[in-house]
Design goal:
mainly alpha, 78% helix, rod-shaped
Length: 213
Amino acid sequence: MKKYFNCGDLIIIVFLFLSIAWIIGYKFYWLNMIPLFSKADKVADITYTISTSIVASAIFYLFTIFIPKISEVNRMKKQIKIDIYSLEQTSFTIIQFINKYSIDQFIQNVFSDNGDIERDFTKYYGISQHKPVLLDSMKRQIDILESILKNYSDLLSNEIKRKIVNITKQGKGSLIEKPIVPIPDNYSILHKLHFETFKEILNITNLLKDVYI
């Protein structure tokens, strides 16, 4: 996740503190010292003037841009939690129809690459009357992920953004009920794509939860 500070913010803050340090040093120490070299006072005066300008500009930046940006980031972090909750609840709806597992057991086994999970998932959602629930739910999840990418891009790590881009491009292509050529092998490939898409949605949801929940 991107922090409140970017490189430009850090540079401004560093120069702010350096300038304040020089202004204090100039006022309380330099004016009472014997110049170290000719024209030292002139150089010090110029540096003091520049420093006061930097302080004024930095304070203006902090109050007009930086602090409002922090407020906006905090607002976005609250809102993204709602979207993560929606992703999670939709996943729970998909999982709960597979009565063989609790929700926690299912998720744990998915990420331990338990082959039984994929078989049981495909066995249930491979049935034509069950498939619309899966596809509609995953389409809704992909829509939520697209919204997260669009609205909260500044909060997301590059890894999460890459995963969302991939799932929105590849996942939507797999969310069809029947293969173009309806032969058994193509059905098997399609069912595997459905499972892998759902697995990746669970993975992205967990990554988002680790950061924001």
